[in-house]
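Hi L.,

You mentioned the student needs an example of a multi-chain input paired with its predicted structure. This one should do, with 146 residues in total across all chains.
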Amino acid sequence: MIFVSGCLWGKNCKYSGGNNLRENLKEKLKGEEIMLICPECLGELPTPRSPSEIEEGFDGENVICGMGKVFSRDGKDVTAEFLKGAEKVLELAKKHNPKAVYLKQGSPSCGFGLIYDGTFTGVKKAGNGITAQLLIDNGFHVIAEE
Ligand code: SF4
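Structure written out for the whole complex:
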């Protein structure tokens, strides 16, 4: 079993209602048993939705520790929804024990290695999203889509 961010597989779960389809990833994982995950959907955020970023100066690790928050572009605190979605993905991972988890870079949930910097200006910085960090903390093998 391999977990993949749903938007990378063509699922229209992105904040805009679209996806981030990566045909090359589908090709690479051909024949594998795939489970699509979308932490933001599992956190019961609607699609489409306002885009969100972890507040400036913080990352997923900080949010898990209660030291940072996630805000939507229109200023709503969506930290609880992001944490709920991450916990649900972790529950699924503990149940299915995926040998790898391919995640979408940049996302405040799925970002692995790179996340947006909290300014909503398209600038990325080093760091992990909340779900990526929680999976790493629990020993799962996380891989960035690129
Ligand atoms: S939370 Fe992850 S799977 Fe869902 S749309 Fe964002 S990057 Fe894709």
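You could point out the following to them. Strands lie at 2-5, 34-37, 52-54, 70-72, 100-103, 114-116, 124-126, 142-144. Residues 5-7, 13-14, 38-40, 104, 107, 109-110 surround iron/sulfur cluster (CB under 6 Å).

Best wishes,
N.
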